[in-house]
Amino acid sequence: MRYVLIVFWMLLCSVTSAMAQVSVGIGIALPGVSIGINQPMYPQLVRVPGYPVYYAPRLNSNFFFYDGMYWVYQGDNWYASSWYNGPWGLVGPEYVPLFVLRIPVRYYRVPPAYFRGWASDAPPRWGEHWGTGWEQQRSGWNQWNHSSAPAPAPLPVYQRQYSGNRYPPVQQQQQLQSQHYRYQPREAVVQQHYQEQAKQRASATSQRQQPGISPQRRPQQQDTQRSNPTPIQQGGPAVPRSQPPQKGGVAVPRAAPTQAMPQQRGPAVQEQRQQPQQRAAPRAAPTAPPQQRGPAVQEQRQQPKGAQGQEKDREKRE
Q1: Do residues 64 and 96 make contact, with C-beta atoms less than 8 angstroms apart?
Q2: Residue 25 class from Cβ within 10 Å (0-12 exposed, 13-18 middle, 19+ buried)?
Q3: CA-based angle 118:122:125, to the nearest 5?
Q4: Are 30 and 80 in contact (CB under 8 A)?
Q5: Using CA atoms, how far apart are residues 76 and 291, in angstroms rounded to an integer?
Q6: CA–CA gap between residue 180 and residue 172 (Å, rounded)
Q7: How far is it, in rounded angstroms, from Cα 199 to Cα 54?
Q8: Would you say 108 and 115 are in contact if contact means Cβ atoms under 8 Å apart?
Q9: What pLDDT sits at residue 313?
Q10: Which pLDDT does position 230 carry in this prediction?
Q11: How far apart (Å, rounded) are the C-alpha atoms in residues 116 and 163?
């Protein structure tokens, strides 16, 4: 059993060191790390005397507030968040703010085992714990003028109304913070974190607006194309379909409207339809000669009778 615990501890340390290496170069890692802290309501925060830092005396954790963010020391790592119950982002030892490192040992509510024997009114011996490489990189981290400490950042007390089931998700947290918390941080690592949050808010709003705007723009473009067809026709040759020839063989000019063509055809068709009526009148003329020929025929028919009468007269005379 003891061997299993040792192996598990070694694996945990390797994973923790790997996570710390990932955070190097980006300051505060992306939020979402579970550190085993569940704070259902806004904690009571008390200022550390002489420091621009607050600590939570009633919590069973090393919980602090500095420069507009919450800081937790848990499992030999530092975590930070803009809200009191996370989500938490891992912070590398090279990027932890100096005033967080300078917090005296006595204000750590759950100090790790290696804090034993250290002075309670002095900060932890981070150089001994993290090695000479870290101490060379952060040289002079504990040298400062106690009388010239900056003013602490205001507490985000607006978060008190968001507890329990009302605790907001990450995107809503960023929106609420931008609306209710106007503090501008001093630390570079906190400034970078705020800038990343602003970029995430901008990208989220743009993604929300694109599906709502694009369907509205497309019908407008189609309406403009339908309501203004003339510019398209002016730029190119006339379309053959819009200029069909008339029955008389005369092509319609380009400027003539398509609706005027039936009006021009109307009189021509009527004239053509009226021509058969006019031609029908001469056909009735041949019927008149029989009426005129009637007397001539009668005369011709009467002529034989006259000849016979003349012959009879001649016979009588003889």
Answers
A1: no
A2: exposed
A3: 55
A4: no
A5: 137
A6: 12
A7: 28
A8: yes
A9: 58
A10: 38
A11: 35
pLDDT of residue 316: 58
At 136 the pLDDT is: 94
Q: Which residue has the tokens 């329990």?
A: 164
End-to-end CA distance of the chain: 183
Place of tokens 């109304």: 161
This prediction's pTM: 0.58
Over its C-alpha atoms, the chain yields an Rg (Å, rounded) of 54
Give the amino acid at 307.
A
Please report the pLDDT score of residue 24 as a whole number.
31
Residue 250, strand partner residues: none
pLDDT recorded at residue 317:
62
Within a 10 A sphere around the Cβ of 94, how many other Cβ atoms? 16
CB 201 within 8 A of CB 208: no
Q: How many CB atoms are located within 10 Å of the residue 99 CB?
A: 23
pLDDT digits (tens, 9 = 90+) for 38-73: 899 999 999 999 999 999 999 999 999 999 999 999
Label each residue of 203-259 as H, E or C: HHHHHHHHHHHHHHHHHHHHHHHHHCCHHHHHCCCCCHHHCCCCCCCCCCCCCCCCC
Which pLDDT value is given to residue 139? 92
Collapsing DSSP to helix, strand or coil, 71 comes out as strand
- CA 89/CA 30 separation, integer angstroms: 5
State which residues of the chain have pLDDT below 70: 1-33, 204-318
Nearest to 113 by CA among 105, 102, 103: 105
- In the sheet that 54-55 helps form, which strands lie side by side, from edge to edge? 46-47, 54-55, 62-66, 69-74, 77-81, 89-91
Structural domain spans, the chain: 2-208
